[in-house]
Design a protein that fits this description.
heterodimer; A: mainly alpha; B: Rossmann fold; Dihydrodipicolinate Reductase, domain 2; ten-stranded mixed beta sheet; six-stranded parallel beta sheet; 18 strands; Gfo/Idh/MocA-like_OxRdtase_N (chain B)
Chain lengths: 88, 535
């Protein structure tokens, strides 16, 4: 449940540019969890069918890095509700 | 969503007014601040469009196919189980124990085992499912087995009344019979379950029917061609209720497959491919030998019965399926299941010809029956060929495939129909894009009531497990229980069960044709008028 609400709130936040920094950090934490729940270690295979568990070319990891880029090069004080709220 | 956006805008404006005097906020700030909100509108609009498009496709497809996603109607009306039926069981080995359980008599040790297992593994539903079986109002009054240990376990199972929530008020102590003829002749036995080696199926069925006892016999119906005629005659003359143990008759996906064929979804089916793939000693009939088995605990002479004499052998007793002397090999054990499913779905009847080949290629343990076998059956009147392909030393899963000109149907515990790209029937729909030959046009997963164009990998993974089960009202049920229950209900109502003697006759002759062809190394034919297998 926490996952569902967390994901929804993060998604809304990122789309609206609202509390962007918190949403980005929250999103990165969740993605890190997803990545670590199927750690791409040798001799470890997960019993559920999944899209695969790759070391680097992994969509979860790539998404996580993209969010890190957004965090480092912030735009929310330019466009988004954060501008109205004067969050920078 | 649009309204919500407006609301947000209003609130934003309100905020702006409230904080207006303190913070300077110009028009540019507001515009840039709310610039992201239209994204929600665009997102909601495209989501709605996509959903309604998918919905339209699905409902068009659903109407166009003409085959419902409802669970099949019950094969027979439900019967009041007021009068108690007294059962005798002959043959209490691996299958006999399972049949007893299906009738509501699980062995206490098994109950404890599955109960303990369910406590640590919540995916193990065996205990729960056993408890969910309806009380069939039967008692076991007679038990017969030539091996003392097996007879003893069956006796323990027969008095087991620990089924929680059971309405069984009294426990009947069954009598152990040393000889099957005594059990059949007993006055307190109304019906018998026969789960002996193949060479005994025919003689015991005949004996039971002559005594007016209803019969549930394991497949195959018979061990020789000759006794098949006699079994059919005696069953018909006596009027007893007969059921052959092909529990696949109860599998929901098979029943839906029959509906799919009747609805003409497949077009002309020219080829049916059915298979057996096993890759473990147990699957190859190398069953464990009981430590207490010896000439004193086994009535060897009775075991041999109509079979050619052989000196006492524990291997032959426990692994009897490996010898033609007592068994019908892959043909009787596993081909019959596949054939019966095809006969249930397509009503093919006895084939015009059979040609089989194979050999003992892996289990060179002294067996006489092949471990690898292929049979080609021709049904010229139905314009189709049925191929059976089996190996006991490779486990690669192959579904039952019904290959039609218009669509191909895969039958397992699920049912998947995929249109053929060159189909005549679906030509216009394929051109219009309503049907995509890459995806199933009909995908029936029992217990699931919706159109399911592409099931997720996770669901497929779980659905492909456990062919032993069917579904009723969305609940998983043991097919053997359903099959036994159908037989008992038919005894009460006087109706014919789904795998009656006519179906059984067709099953037996079809299997015998494959066996004769294997031995003779040539094609054998079925003379429909004379009802004879000819070379």
């Amino acid at each position: 449940m926490l996952n569902i609400y967390g994901l929804t709130l993060i998604g809304v936040g990122l789309m609206a540019g609202l509390f962007t920094r918190v949403s980005l950090i929250g999103g990165m934490v969740l993605l890190a969890f997803y990545y670590l729940s199927h750690p791409p270690l040798p001799l470890l295979s997960y019993s559920m069918p999944s899209e695969g568990s790759y070391l680097i070319v992994n969509k979860t990891l790539i998404e996580l890095f993209s969010m890190a880029v957004l965090l480092v090069f912030p735009t929310w004080h330019r466009i988004g509700i954060d501008r109205l709220l004067k969050i920078s | 969503m649009g309204m919500k956006d407006d609301k947000n805008k209003n609130t934003d404006k309100g905020d702006q007014k409230a904080i207006g005097p303190k913070v300077k906020m110009d028009r540019r700030d507001v515009l840039k601040g709310i610039a992201t909100l239209p994204i929600f509108g665009a997102f909601a609009y495209s989501y709605y469009k996509r959903r309604s498009h998918e919905h339209l496709l699905k409902s068009n497809l659903r109407r166009g196919i003409g085959l419902s996603y409802d669970a099949p109607a019950p094969a027979y009306p439900s019967v009041a189980r007021d009068n108690q039926i007294r059962l005798g069981i002959i043959g209490c080995g691996i299958r006999g124990t399972q049949l007893l359980r299906a009738a509501g008599f699980a062995h206490p040790a098994w109950m404890e085992e599955v109960k303990a297992n369910a406590a640590v593994n919540r995916h193990d539903k065996r205990y729960e499912e056993y408890l969910a079986q309806e009380d069939l109002n039967v008692v076991i009054t007679g038990v017969c087995d030539v091996f003392d240990v097996h007879a003893g376990t069956a006796m323990e199972a027969a008095v087991n009344s620990q089924k929680e929530g059971s309405s069984r008020s009294s426990v009947t102590q069954p009598k152990r019979y040393r000889h099957y003829q005594e059990l059949i002749a007993a006055d307190d036995v109304d019906a018998v379950i026969i789960a002996t080696p193949d060479h005994w199926h025919g003689p015991m069925t005949i004996e039971a029917a002559r005594h007016g006892k209803h019969v549930y016999v394991e497949k195959p119906l018979t061990w020789t061609v000759e006794e098949t005629y006699e079994v059919r005659k005696v069953i018909k003359d006596s009027g007893v209720i007969f059921q052959l143990g092909h529990q696949g008759r109860q599998t929901e996906s098979y029943i839906k497959a029959r509906e799919a064929v009747e609805a003409g979804l497949l077009g002309n089916v020219s080829l049916i491919e059915v298979c057996t793939n096993r890759n473990d000693p147990n699957g190859a009939w190398v069953y464990p030998i009981h430590p207490d088995a010896n000439p004193n605990t086994i009535d060897w002479k009775q075991f041999i019965g109509p079979a050619p004499w052989h000196d006492f052998s524990l291997e032959r007793f426990f692994r009897w399926r490996c010898w033609w002397d007592y068994s019908t090999g892959l043909n009787g054990d596993l081909l019959t299941h596949e054939y019966d499913a095809v006969n249930q779905i397509m009503k093919v009847g006895i084939p015009h010809s059979a040609m089989s080949s194979g050999g003992i290629y892996f289990y060179k343990d002294g067996r006489t029956v092949p471990d690898t076998l292929q049979v080609a059956y021709e049904f010229p009147k139905k314009d189709l060929t049925m191929l059976y392909s089996a190996t006991l030393s490779s486990g690669k899963y192959r579904p039952k495939l019904f290959m039609g000109h218009d669509a191909c149907m895969e039958v397992s515990d699920r049912l998947v129909v995929t249109a053929e790209e060159q189909s005549t029937r679906y030509k216009n729909k394929i051109i219009s894009g309503e049907i995509d030959p890459r995806y199933p046009i009909y995908n029936y997963t029992p217990g699931k009531k919706d159109v399911d164009a592409v099931t997720s990998a996770t669901e497929q993974y779980f659905a492909s497990r456990g062919l032993l089960y069917s579904y009723r009202d969305g609940k998983r049920v043991d097919t053997t229980y359903l099959h036994i229950a159908e037989w008992l209900d038919c005894i009460r109502s006087g109706q014919q069960p789904s795998c009656d003697i006519d179906q059984a006759f067709e099953e037996a002759m079809t299997a015998h044709m494959a066996t004769i062809s294997y031995h003779e190394k040539r094609m054998v034919f079925w003379d429909e008028d004379k009802e004879l297998i000819t070379l």
